[in-house]
Write a structure and sequence with these properties.
By secondary structure, the chain is α+β, with helices and mostly antiparallel strands. It folds into two domains: about 100 residues, Helix Hairpins, CATH 1.10.287; about 325 residues, Bira Bifunctional Protein, Domain 2 (BirA Bifunctional Protein, domain 2, 2-Layer Sandwich). It starts with a helix and ends with a helix.
Length: about 450
């Protein structure tokens, strides 16, 4: 969240951020009015408190001097001041709650380097990698959803039967490939200095609020537990939408030491989101689903180091694709497409040649986002109370948080199934993954089981 002092002193900057990020339903003038009334009441309360202290000091002296009538008047005045002060404090507390809630609705201010734009079309391509020496592809690349069913490694029909649309079974060599990708990603990031975290899957509302998922995006998450009178009760939990939530909140309301920084954690987790079905053609296959695996990279750094770390984090996430020899590009995200909480964000998109869609490169196929690499500056830190002490004798300061996927596993699998497929319908395993698959070099698939796999003649 933005500090109330920053909002108070920079209203036009905040107003510009609201407009450039396309945030609706926020009345900045009302926020400023609440803050102004709160400050006036606090000042008035301080004055009354000082007057009451002075009056209280005179009561004993007046009694000792035998001025009982004047002492009684002072007692009555002290009570009046107490009652007036209580009314002011009650109203100030009410305004404080309103102000805190309103500040949670204000978006982060984009960094000066962020391109201005309204949506996807205004993002700026920073660079591409891996297109200089593409492998030879079949004349017609089979989309992953058809290939996955032919190889019997992806089963969307049974996933829908067991749970519902947007869920799937990953089977046989497909499951083995996904396990290999997870272990490979974790190994790459360990080499980069990341420590492993295995986080809890349910997270509480305070954690969701700390990273910015609440209150803005509660409809995108899966809630576990009760909700009463539009308030989250103490037993209310959420299935994590990303490991960013628990890992960022590990140190919530704590003070780290300067020597602790930078902190670099990586966390593998299943993730749960309601977003499947919102993007037309992506409702088919393994691109946009309700449950998926991901390795998340979370960094805590000194404020002066955060933009150098952002560049390094981008390289660390992209290294996974480079070792897999998958072509990709990096987008510098514009203000209207970068998100509520970020100060600056890059997207890494891998090339999947199996679908000839309008948003793909000139050579066909399409781009799949596999990572968003973001610098939040102190926006999340203020919400979650994440601070560090530069020196033991100095005051604690808010640190800066960054994160990025390293990477989203299903979409990398889609790219492998499409980019590494062969004319005979098999899939070559990228060399970097083979040690994690027991040396297996080719995915050939398995024969499906059950009567549903038989032809009509065979069933008879």
């Amino acid at each position: 969240m933005l500090s109330r002092q920053f909002v108070r002193e920079n209203p036009e900057t905040v107003r510009d951020a609201i407009e450039r990020k396309g945030v609706t339903g926020v009345d900045l003038d009302e926020v400023l009015a609440i803050d102004e009334e709160w400050r006036e009441l606090k000042a008035k309360g301080d004055g009354l408190r000082q007057e009451r202290n002075e009056v209280s000091k005179t009561i004993g002296a007046l009694k000792q001097e035998g001025k009982d009538e004047e002492a009684q008047e002072a007692i009555e005045r002290s009570q009046e001041l107490k009652d007036e002060l209580q009314d002011i404090e009650d109203r100030a507390d009410e305004l404080e709650s309103q102000l805190e809630a309103a500040l949670l609705e204000l978006p982060n201010v984009p960094h000066e380097s962020v391109p201005t734009g309204e949506g996807e079309a205004d993002n700026v391509e920073a660079y591409r990698e891996g297109f200089e020496d593409l492998r030879e592809l079949p004349d017609e690349v089979v989309p992953h959803y058809d290939l996955g069913e032919e190889l019997d490694i992806l089963d969307f029909e049974r996933g829908a039967k067991v749970t519902g649309g947007g869920y799937q079974f990953v089977k046989g060599e497909g499951a083995r490939l996904e396990h290999a990708l997870i272990q490979f990603m974790l190994a790459v990031h360990r080499e980069q200095g990341y420590s492993d975290i295995l986080p809890p899957i349910p997270v509480n509302s305070a954690s969701m609020e700390g990273t910015g998922q609440l209150p803005k995006f509660d409809d995108d998450a899966y809630r576990v537990g009760a909700r009463q009178d539009d308030e989250y009760d103490e037993d209310d939990l959420w299935l994590l939408p990303t490991a960013e939530v628990p890992v960022t909140n590990m140190y919530r309301d704590e003070i780290l030491l300067d020597d602790d920084l930078p902190v670099k954690h990586q966390a593998f987790s299943p993730n749960f989101r309601r977003e499947a079905g919102e993007h037309g053609t992506e409702t088919r296959g393994y691109v946009r689903v309700h449950q998926f695996h991901k390795v998340e990279l979370v960094n805590f750094v000194r404020p002066e180091d955060s933009y150098d770390r952002l560049d390094a984090l981008l390289d660390e996430a992209a290294e996974v694709l480079e070792r897999l020899e998958l072509p990709y590009r990096v987008l510098d995200m514009c203000t209207g497409d970068m998100g509520f909480t970020q100060a600056k964000k890059y997207d890494i998109e891998v090339w999947a040649p199996g679908d000839d869609m309008a948003e793909g490169p000139d050579i066909g196929g399409r781009w799949l986002e596999v990572s968003s690499v973001s610098n939040f500056e102190d926006f999340q830190a203020r919400r979650a109370g994440l601070r560090f002490r530069p020196e033991r004798h100095e005051s604690a300061e808010y640190l800066h948080t960054l994160n990025g996927s390293g990477l989203a596993v299903p979409r990398v699998m889609v790219a492998i199934l499409e980019y590494y497929q062969n004319d005979d319908g098999t899939v070559t395993v990228p060399e970097a993954l083979r040690p994690y698959m027991g040396g297996q070099a080719v995915i050939e698939g398995t024969e499906p089981v059950g009567e549903s796999a038989l032809g009509a003649g065979e069933k008879e």
